[in-house]
């Protein structure tokens, strides 16, 4: 296991090569190199402060790297890449916000446009399909601010998926959730797998990520220190001691 990959895999939907980020004189990411194959479920685990969220910002085009390159589906990453869906780490939704779950999902279709969305059968069907995909039909007409943390995460995932991205980035979706809600959310995420969607799950909760990933990477102090099949990462003595408490 290791991070060196001499040749990029042509089947990779995401290719990260030698990415470095330095902020205020401090190196946050140091020569990070890894790839995510199309149709694969990949976990990226690391403790708080390892650089996980900074790496996601680079992939999304929100943070310029000091060095290195990012390509998505074989092309250089752009700021507004329709191939990428993203669910941020923690979104605070005001209980008084007059927005239903289905309204928030629908904003994934036309929220970037000026004016009110135009109702249509096609739009309604697309929203219903995404709500069904994340098992959220029962609270589709509830205000999003009144939903539980796990329910809000499902709605945010549906919002990210409705644009039909090829790559879905999930930034610590289990954060703040009780263990039983984490298990329920993982079941929903696992059910999203199909040949047209690739998932990168970034988690401090290594147990959650390794439970459903095909491959995994460990990010420590800005460097990828381990990589390989999730089962091998889970069995690694260092991972068991540092992340799994075994």
How would you summarize what this structure contains?
The chain has two domains: 164 residues, 3-Layer(aba) Sandwich (Rossmann fold), CATH 3.40.50; 76 residues, no CATH class. Helix content is 31%, strand content 26%. The chain contains eight helices and ten strands.
Would you tell me the overall average pLDDT? 88
The CATH superfamily of the largest domain turns out to be P-loop containing nucleotide triphosphate hydrolases
Which class do the helix and strand fractions yield?
Answer: alpha/beta
Number of helices: 8
The largest sheet is: 6 strands, mixed
Strand adjacency order, main sheet: 6-7-8-3-9-10
Characterization of this structure:
- The structure is a single chain.
- With 246 residues, the protein is α/β, with parallel strands linked by helices.
- It folds into two domains: 1-83 and 166-246, Rossmann fold (3-Layer(aba) Sandwich); 89-164, no CATH class.
- It has eight helices and ten strands.
- The strands form two sheets. The chain has a six-stranded mixed sheet, sandwiched between helices. A four-stranded antiparallel sheet has the order 2-1-4-5, covered by helices on one side.
- Helix 2 (101-110) packs across helix 3.
- The longest helix is centred in the middle third of the chain and has 13 residues, at 121-133.
- The model is unreliable at 1-8 (pLDDT under 50).
Keywords:
2 domains, alpha/beta, Rossmann fold, 246 residues, disordered N terminus, six-stranded mixed sheet, four-stranded antiparallel sheet, single chain
Secondary-structure map:
Layout: E1 12-23, E2 26-37, E3 41-45, H1 52-60, E4 67-72, E5 75-76, E6 84-87, H2 101-110, H3 121-133, H4 149-161, E7 167-171, H5 179-191, E8 198-203, H6 206-212, E9 215-220, E10 223-229, H7 230-235, H8 237-242
Parallel strand pairs: 3-8, 3-9, 6-7, 7-8
Antiparallel strand pairs: 1-2, 1-4, 4-5, 9-10
Helix pairs in contact: 2-3, 2-4, 3-4
